[in-house]
Design goal:
227 residues; 33% helix; 17% strand; 7 strands; globular; alpha/beta
């Protein structure tokens, strides 16, 4: 499995913590690489694993979801966790303990961060517009909301009220379920944002105000929880 890697200018020795960046449904493209680069600029050792390696790798253009479906072939929650663990091992080899490793994901990756937070004990997790946590969207990806009560990693979730793929009722169901979580958690909604509001390469989806606020909250979450 390939992974994109970004480190601070001072190198890994100058990093404050590490972060796994989980791709959207479109693969590790320039946007996801730019997220890793921005995290490195803020002092994090960032890696973005290529989760589509089981289906030949590569990326899919935005706006053509029909080409995403073949990339999902071979994907399962068990395989995803294997890939997350491989990224963790890479960071362990670089000297990072799990308490110093965070995970952030977008779209497909937003759900992956919740899966990782439920099944693994990391320092912190952040999910942007992760679909399928409450209502399953693909057969191989069951809903995860029932695991809120056994969450192992502090989790912060961002959602847009105008997201046609994630109903507000689902977001509020998730918020209610997280009230029983044994770790720190938060859910933030943006009234004027939809799916992909952090994606600055997509003018129709990008919402600068929501993106800036979520980015600030994400950094605060990592700075608070990563050791």
């Amino acid at each position: 499995m390939e992974l994109y890697e970004a480190v601070p200018k001072e190198g890994t020795a100058g990093a404050r913590a590490a972060v796994i960046v989980v791709q959207e449904a479109f693969g590790v493209n320039e946007h996801i690489e730019s997220v890793a680069d921005r995290l490195a600029e803020r002092g994090f050792h960032a890696v973005a694993p290529h989760f589509f390696h089981r289906a030949g790798g590569g990326t899919v253009p935005y706006g053509d979801f029909s080409k995403v479906i073949p990339k999902y072939e071979g994907l399962s929650d068990e395989g995803i966790l294997i890939d997350v663990d491989a990224a963790r091992q890479h960071l362990h080899d670089a000297g990072w303990a799990d308490a110093s490793i965070g995970i952030v994901g977008f779209c497909f990756g937003g759900r992956v961060t919740f899966l990782a937070a439920a099944r693994r004990s990391l320092g912190a997790a952040v999910g942007y517009y992760g679909g399928g946590i409450v209502t399953a969207r693909f057969p191989q990806f069951p809903p995860l909301v029932g695991e809120a009560t056994t969450l192992q990693t502090p989790w912060l979730g961002f959602f847009g009220d105008q997201d046609q793929s994630i109903p507000v009722d689902d977001v509020e169901t998730l918020r209610q379920a997280l009230e029983q979580a044994p770790v720190d958690h938060d859910v933030v909604r943006y009234a004027a944002a939809g799916h992909g509001f952090n994606r600055d390469v997509s003018p129709d989806a990008y919402r600068p105000g929501a993106a800036a606020d979520a980015w600030r909250r994400m950094l605060d979450w990592f700075n608070t929880h990563l050791k």
